[in-house]
């Protein structure tokens, strides 16, 4: 902490052992690799051993890319470099830039040219001195303590060696151009380069990006509800994994041993399966024939990677309320999932309704302590102690908005079904301040 803790501070952690972060999985292919896909920009990603030299390299490469593409060529708005820790020993470096697809090959050439120059000659002493001075200025800021706390907490959870500020500054002072060249050589050895669909790899011996796509599984098939057999999506579940075959498009397979996380969503019964390769699929009991059997089978196979029970308890409570109070909870699945993350463990839901606010369709929730409104791009949190009154249409048969008058202003909500608005208004005013 950066100050004295409050008297009522409580950190209620569930019982259990610390779970170590998963080790990054190596993608078996030849490097450097190139993939032409998408539009609107380019990116290089690479993994290497965590080090002060690698972090400094990512910043210097980002600065060179910014100078070359924005200041000199005017081809991009926001070129940048990034450094993200993955575990105790590994970091992910990114170099990225927006650009027009027609300029992509020039931008790709500039980007790879910067990496090539750094692994040959390293950084200049001027660049190293500038980076060190920037760190010194940052550490002199009043908010620097918070950043150091965040770094120390992350290193503790990842199991990385803790460095004092003096040790870190000594490493920065000792860096040489040769240290940066060695870090750049390591980065280049695992580099993957992405460009738009119409682009080609720059010179440098790039290999096509190619990974193993799991073959579809064999097993029990579940057809999509309400669609003819030849026009329905099909899910097949077997001992090796699960395959989702849309009526139009390519099938997607996630093998059980490659499933990294299974997120329970409070929308009436569904799981989001995330594979280590970055692919994902949603399995809903409402979408398929015998969907309850399908979902129970999937849950049994991914028990080890489901969301921790502390989060799942709230999600299950939201799911039960949604199934009881909402006509179509699936239409608000994203909002219900967000609500589960917002609510506290002991917070009781009194009402859940669908509706509109400022033209956006979303979820209206009343708890014993606040009103929560959620839409795809909107979030309101109104403590009941700040609510002054609730206004309803003067004529009972008119479907007008319900207006919540709070200290911050008046907020109109078109509640559905409207017949529940009067009861809702009474419950809000009963508990309001």
Topology:
Layout: E1 33-36, E2 41-49, H1 52-72, E3 80-85, E4 90-98, H2 104-121, H3 125-139, H4 144-158, H5 165-174, H6 177-188, E5 192-195, E6 207-208, E7 220-223, E8 234-237, E9 241-245, E10 252-255, E11 259-265, E12 270-275, E13 280-284, H7 291-301, H8 309-325, H9 333-342, E14 349-357, E15 360-367, E16 370-375, E17 378-383, E18 387-391, E19 402-406, E20 409-416, H10 421-431
Parallel strand pairs: 1-5, 1-6
Antiparallel strand pairs: 2-4, 2-5, 3-4, 7-8, 8-9, 9-10, 11-12, 12-13, 14-15, 14-20, 15-16, 16-17, 18-19, 19-20
Structure description:
This protein is of the alpha+beta class and 433 residues long. The chain has three domains: 33-208, Cytochrome Bc1 Complex, Chain A, domain 1; 220-307, PH-domain like (Roll); 327-431, Pleckstrin-homology domain (PH domain)/Phosphotyrosine-binding domain (PTB) (PH-domain like, Roll), CATH 2.30.29. Helices cover 32% and strands 27% of the residues. The strands form four sheets. It has a seven-stranded antiparallel beta sheet, sandwiched between helices. The radius of gyration is 27 Å and the shape is globular. The mean pLDDT is 89.
